[in-house]
Design a protein that fits this description.
The protein has 137 residues and is α/β, with parallel strands linked by helices. The protein contains two helices and six strands. InterPro entries: BOBF_sf, CarO-like.
Length: 137
């Protein structure tokens, strides 16, 4: 009986794994994909108590792990989810995960954006870790 339960458990795990694999698209495949897409996440668009700061203010007075908002432009992609952000007062490296960009929107270096995130001030690096990117009119 014990062997039968183990066999059934293994079969169930294999069946679950096979059904999960059916949704994954092979990395080299670029054709149509009928797999279910993850639900789009909404975001809050009302007022915020997180302070709007300039790059200079953040670099001069910012504390590690401080929440802040920045408004300016993403002027270059520097690789590995890192971008250079610029406002009228200076530049800072920002880290933006792909899912933190607005869904379905492409952002150019000329567009003004607002970044909501957290200042990461360390001994070897100083950057702004972005939680949300909003395109401004």
């Amino acid at each position: 009986m014990r062997h039968t339960v183990s066999t059934l458990t293994a079969a169930a795990v294999l069946a679950l794994g096979a059904s999960t694999l059916a949704f994954a698209q092979p990395s080299g495949y670029t054709g149509p994909n009928n797999a279910p897409k993850p639900a789009a996440q909404g975001s809050y668009s009302g007022p915020s108590t997180v302070p709007l700061m300039t790059v200079k203010q953040l670099l001069d007075t910012g504390r590690d792990d401080q929440a802040a908002r920045l408004q300016g432009r993403l002027v270059s992609f520097d690789g590995d989810e890192r971008y250079t952000f610029e406002d009228a007062t200076g530049r800072i490296t920002v880290e933006i995960d792909n899912e933190d960009f607005p869904a379905g929107q492409t952002i150019s270096a000329e567009q003004t954006v607002e970044l909501l995130g957290e200042f990461d001030k360390g001994l070897r690096k100083t950057e702004f870790e972005v939680d949300r990117v909003t395109v401004l009119p």
